[in-house]
Amino acid sequence: MLRVIAIDGPAASGKSSTAGLVAARLGWAHLDSGALYRALTLAALDNIGEGGRGKGEGEGEGWSAQHIVDLAERLPVRLVRVGDVFRPEVAGVDVEQAIRSERVTRSVSVVAAIPEVRIWVNAQQRTAVEGGGGVVVDGRDIGTVVFPEAPLKIFLTATPDERARRRLSQRGQAVDGELVRRESQALAARDAADSTRRIAPLKPATDAVLLDTTALTLEAQVTRVVELARALFPG
Question: What pLDDT score was predicted for residue 50?
């Protein structure tokens, strides 16, 4: 049996936090698919830069799929397993902190929407888990596209307002009504875009366990996933 747990869900639903803690409880590895898209985006920003933009386009919108994939292979951009985590590297350098910058965040959705890039990333993820042992993978299309054969698929949800509050707290910002409203609107717009895109739209797999975390603590949602995993993967 493939020892993969796929955790999907919209932005700020707690995918990465949940996946990391579930993996730790089970003694499995954690693979954050978003980290690879972000590493690709960082590589494109640093190495293609202005030359990758079309006239009048926003940052990244003029990048060609072939430029990005060729760059990823040449540098290379990779996920490297270190203990129980997969570390994003660009040209052999750990970029875990650099990929979380606002600069990368602004452009990552453009890169992730390119079909050829998604194909490349999916292949990298499948290769990464071939080493054996259990892996918890989180993203937006893990259970539907990347590992549709995963024995356990989880789809996390939460209201836009709750996700907005979590995101603001993570940033260290005050969680007041107006900020929550604006962040909630931004997340709702991101949800709409992710759910209606032509390639790998955000949606739960038909056999996914839906877990609404709006009223759950992180501990409670982790415990629920671990319970499901231990029932399915004894020993």
Answer: 42
Q: Which amino acid belongs to residue 40? A: L
Residue 117 to residue 121: CA distance in whole angstroms = 6
- pLDDT tens-digit readout, 43-94: 999 998 644 443 334 444 568 899 999 999 999 999 999 988 899 999 999 9
Q: Give mean pLDDT, residues 30-52.
A: 86
Q: How far does the chain reach from its first CA to its final CA, in angstroms?
A: 13
